[in-house]
Fold Cytochrome c domain-containing protein.
Amino acid sequence: MGTFSKFLGVSAAVLMLSASVAGAEEKDPLKPRVPADQIAEAKAMKNPVASSPESIAKGKALFEGKGTCFNCHGKEGKGDGPAGAILNPSPRNFTNCKFHKKRKDGELFWVIKNGSPGTGMVSLIPAAITEEEAWTIINYERSFCKGDE
Ligand code: HEC
């Protein structure tokens, strides 16, 4: 019995290790991250930066530079950046159109401002970027969804 439970403990440790080496998965990206008591307000927020080729280009520069977003989310937005590989849950894959359909800009903004508790996504306003820069980056993040599924 003692040996058996020790064996179970070791196997669990090995399993956890292999999971982190293989790369973790996203926590269900379709479930909201904003707490229930704040979600109506978050959804009602309007992005003050109009989406245009110019704001998307600005957002890309911020995503890949000052904002440091690419470190975790990856330059292609797939959630596979160099620092993202060790995170569990893994960073959001912005190429997932279903995710974008589920979220209003204000919900994305809320997470950039407050972080997603219990994950590697920490508050980045004002630590890395301003509110206006966050709205600009949101326009760029939306552009990772290429299809319309
Ligand atoms: C240290 C790693 C890291 C960095 C840097 C980072 N993120 Fe994240 N991000 C994450 C992780 C991990 C998640 C997934 C959190 C979850 O599943 O709740 C995430 C999720 C998100 C989400 C999804 C929120 C939602 O509603 O599900 C948005 C939007 C986001 N990040 C934007 C950004 C922006 C913009 C930047 C740069 C200014 C950035 N992130 C930088 C790790 C990071």
The two ends are 52 Å apart (CA to CA). The first helix runs from residue 2 to 22. Residues 26-27, 29, 33, 67-69, 71-73, 83-84, 87, 89, 91-92, 103, 107-108, 111-112, 116, 119-121, 124, 128-129, 137 surround heme C (CB under 6 Å). The CA atoms of residues 67 and 131 lie 12 Å apart.
